[in-house]
Amino acid sequence: MPRPLRLKTNFSIYHVMIRSVDGILLFRDDEDKDQFLLRVKRYKQRYGFKLYAYCLMDNHAHMVIDASGADISRVMHGLNLSYAKYYNRKYKRRGHVFCDRFRSEIIDKDNYLLQASKYIHKNPRKLKGWGKKVFQYPYSSASIYLGDSEDSLEILDCEFILKLYSNKNKKKAIKEYLDFMLVPNSKEEEKQIEAEYGFMNQECEYRSEKVTKMKDIDPDKIIEFVGNYIGEDKNKIKMKYIRNMTDAKSISMVFMVRFCNYKIKDVCRYFGNITQARVSGLCSIGVDILFNNEEYKNIIDDFLEVYEF
After folding, report:
1. Cβ proximity of 161 and 114 under 8 Å
2. In order of start, what are the domains of the chain with their CATH numbers?
3. Contact between residue 45 and residue 143 where contact means Cβ atoms under 8 Å apart
4. pTM of the full structure
């Protein structure tokens, strides 16, 4: 039987669940969890999605992801593939790591968003030794929301959920969110949630006060912007054998993936006669430049201001 089409839009909020194939341990130790979160950061930087909640268990993980214009399938395919390569290399194995494609459901209401985050943050109660300190579990975003730990990787976007409680008073918002999470669900609610892996039947787009805009920028405008920003001839950026263009090419490619919704093969086609491996490598360089080089620390904000995202 063919798989059903995945309901999705590029401007939806998703409850995403991934799980291991055949019940193997998806995360065998803390290093595995750390490596997965590092990959979340990498793909978050590349595609610009927002992460509202997460929890990594032994053989599965939950996330609430705001696509913010990105293709959720492309994001999750890249994230899972990257982690699977790490996992198989570390444990000297071959084959699938994840069970089929990831599972996701569009979140359609503020209340559903809160319930999804509550379910995710209470997941560690199933782990031995964490039942009475569920919100202290180090691989869940709950402790970050409550101010008990730092978001050292800077991957979590807490404000959107907390502002549902208070737009101005963060302490009040945190207290009310904690109170909400402490209220137990009924047995019937718990059974339904567990049966559905956490809200798997809803089929409508999330609509709220958040503002998003289409990512359909002309790639030529990206080349022009980057060229002007760093003082290089835009025509040279597109040429294959011109030296000292690595920064410009890398940043331009990352922007195309993020703001033109280009796939790697689309970038290859744009630049002409360049391999996917080379483009992927340059994108990795571009992400590193954008987030670690002081010279370019404002370039994304400046670009968004020019094109009024």
Report:
1. yes
2. 13-195 (3.30.70.1290), 219-306 (1.10.1750.10)
3. no
4. 0.72
